[in-house]
Amino acid sequence: MRSRKRINLFYIPVLILFGVFVVYPFIDGIRISFTNWNGFLPTYNYIGLTNYINMVSDQWFHNVFRNTIIYGFGSTIIQQIIGLSMALFLDSKFKARGLVRTISYLPIMIAPLIMGYIIFFIVQFRGGALNDLVGLFGMDRLDWVGVPNRAVTVILLVNSLQYMGVSMVIYLAGLQNIPNMYKEAASVDGIGPWNTFWHITLPLLAPALSASVVINLIGGLKLFDIIRALSPAAPSSGTHSLVTFLTYQYFNIEQAGYSAAIGVVTFAFILIVSIVVIKLLDKMEVVL
Amino acid sequence: MRKKSWWRYLVSLPILFVYLTPFYILLTVALKHPHDASSRWVMPGYLYLGSFETAINSGRIIQGIQDSFIVTMFTVTLIVIIGAMAAYPLARRISSLNKFVRILIMGVMMIPPLSIIVPLYRTMLFFDAMSTYHGVILLQLTYQLPLAIFIFTSFIRSLTPALDEAAAIDGCGLLRTFFSIIFPQLRPVIVTVVILTGVTAWNDYQFSLYFLQSPQISSVTLAVSRFFAQVNSNIGAAAASAVLGVLPLVVLFLFLQKYFIKGMVDSAVK
């Protein structure tokens, strides 16, 4: 029995790592969020909730928050629609199937930062490949990443398409777990493909959907690299997400206290969103 | 069946177009002479490897690849050993303490490391771990362990406890039971964990950007980003550095596709 308890010693290294690099900094971060520290000087004052109150009235922060929601939920929705369609498309055999699957999964291997840079060659105003096409059709060239809202859309699409393969593979695995007899039974009973999809396939895919939604959502809310790569103009651009914004506040304009406060809000926000979404998905799985 | 599949090829074409275009454009830019002002859609009609020469001769991209290789190797090895060990009690013992540990791990999995960048930076300065291999390795290790632990835990649960109980009765210590009985059985999921965490470690930007600040240690993404900071003066070298930076993983993926895709499916377990 003695040895049965000692088995817990096996996770001591993990607890030490979490303590040093997550839990302690996290608590320290809450403390710093109540200060006006600039990040470099040894002196600072405690200013209570000022940083949090400033967030409420900071228009820029509102914009950043909106962008984060667009990146998180937007990517999740796009990835589910395209990922599921791709999985359905690739579920039956045809010769090019392997090729299509390989190519659409390939971008996941590319560092998101480098993917952003590659896309920059396409969306660049001068000489960009996309504007060459646009010009070919006689339309006006657009500055794809020079205008904040358009840049946010481009970043959203790049992230969605780069990681679409994640959802696709999860849905494909889910589809392959559905016994063929269900679909055969449905077609014997004269149920059309549309109804088969809604009433048989989709409910059986519920676990795959949950997994895919959670992975995509957390990934989208944490988005950093692609934003950095595609917002070369100025760090003050309108494309910031919460995490790029708070690093900007800390490293570029020396607002460490404000940055720490945004960090606390970011963490709380992602935690609450994830828990709510996981709970909702669990309920949905039961209902279906 | 065969006659009806022509439309699938028709649908495949735009998909392939969308997913191959970035790679194609990257190659045309990398292979084109910097003064060649033709469209990026056009492959140069000549062979020009000057951009690759510039990228390699500057030394930065090679150093980045070397450093990322070192960091990735250590990170992945440590994740497999420490992660599998931590998963063992979590899979075998159900207690309120272990429940708490699981929730903690879940929390670490969700927290974006950048949300605590201000205090984390202080912590790293305190330990004198800025711009060191071990600094980045420890950070990557910490933030990638949760996924590995969850994958290992659900796999160990599926193994029968009869074997390790028998070993215990035979007088095997815990460490020996784990390393000679459990660990060897983990082979299929170790492949998964190595692939998932290896790709993330290799492609890391956020930790290298803020915690590798001396020129002595770099990373693939840092090296490529330095070329792109001067993209207007040498666009070809920037593209060539990107090609070199992504090549190792792309080649690995094309050869070991099956394992990569299985790995992604395994990671979706809750």
Mean pLDDT of chain A: 90
Structural class of chain B: mainly alpha
Tally the helices of chain B: 12
Globally, the shape of chain B reads globular
- Helicity range of the residues of chain B? over 70%
Structure annotation, total helices of chain A: 15
Q: Which CATH C-level class of chain A is it?
A: Mainly Alpha
Evaluate the radius of gyration of chain B.
23 Å
- What is the beta-strand fraction of chain A? under 5%
What is the CATH homology-level superfamily of chain A?
A: MetI-like
Gap between N and C termini of chain A = 44 Å
CATH architecture of chain A: Orthogonal Bundle
Biggest contact: A-B, 92 and 92 residues
Structure description:
The complex is a heterodimer of chains A (288) and B (270). Chain A is mostly helical and 288 residues long. Chain A has a single domain, classed as MetI-like (MetI-like fold), CATH 1.10.3720. Chain A has 15 helices and no strands. The two termini of chain A are 44 Å apart. The mean pLDDT of chain A is 90. With 270 residues, chain B is mainly α. Chain B has a single domain, classed as Orthogonal Bundle (MetI-like fold). Helices cover 75% and strands 0% of the residues of chain B. Chain B has twelve helices and no strands. In chain B, helix 3 packs antiparallel against helix 11. The longest helix of chain B has 33 residues. Chains A and B meet through helix 1, helix 2, helix 5, helix 6 and helix 7 of A and helix 1, helix 3, helix 4, helix 5 and helix 6 of B.
